[in-house]
Amino acid sequence: xxxxxxxxxxxxxxxxxxxxxxNLWIKCPDSGQLVFYKDxxxxxxxxxxxxxxxxxxxxxxxxxxxxxxxxxxxxLPDVTADPLKFRDERKYVDRIxxxxxxxxxxxxxxxxxxxxxxxxxxxxxxxFDFMGGSLGxxxxxxxxxxxxxxxxxxxxxxIFAASGGARMQEGILSLMQLPRTTVAIQMLREAKQPYIxxxxxxxxxxxxxxxxxxxxxxxxxxxxxxxxxxxRVIEQTIREKLPEGFQRAEYLRDHGMVDMVVHRHDLxxxxxxxxxLLTKAPVSQIQSPVTLPVAPDVEPVTADTPxx
Length: 308
Fold this sequence. Notes:
This protein has two domains: 15-54, no CATH class; 55-287, 2-enoyl-CoA Hydratase, Chain A, domain 1 (Alpha-Beta Complex), CATH 3.90.226.10. The protein is built from eleven helices and nine strands. A seven-stranded mixed beta sheet has the order 3-4-5-6-7-8-9, with helices on both faces. By secondary structure, it is α/β, with parallel strands linked by helices. The longest helix is centred in the middle third of the chain and has 17 residues, at 137-153.
């Protein structure tokens, strides 16, 4: 045994080696600029300089929208984890387990209830990091639950959509969420409460074909990819070259598919203003406390107390 090679050298390497977090730096997909992760995080995941909007997790999104970064987590019903016992290259239950470990979420949609500049609102957020934000039974149930709560509380419902479409591992059960969410949206309309959709990058597939395009007002983040089928599929179908910027937020706004494109830093005041206008809320209602029928031991989620 060569102690210089097998003992001394590895110890020297371990002393000199510096552990560097993988996400210490972020490379801007648009400009190629390297940016310190903490700077991007403090800037609501918008790259300084290029203004490129990175994807934003569900908890970070709720913090950026609700007053004082405080809200009530809305309890969501449990659903069958693997109704079809699906397996492709891996078992579906294994994919679900990995996605839950990665995001800390039970499924792709998280729902919160709180105030936006004093106005009560129910907010649902789709997290693209959870299996591409795909729409399955649990995500559909979360959207429906949020809409029902908005009807009960007589408050606006806001959804941040980010999805690759329906979840193929759940087959027809995933596609059934399209009409289910549509019916729940109709219930909200009958209650005369606003339904506001914020389209983030990307919003595609069955989500675009259902609740993401049924809002009273459609807002998009700059540069967001929004559409049903991919550009390549469309070009192969119509055998024509698509226009520059096709399916991007600015193109859709210019052609009437989106009402406005709003920078992430301006989203909160924009949503608050829309809630006030669409509900004609008196000042007394805006300043009234937000309550939720929960158990006495349930506390509101804050920036210092991460959600369970």
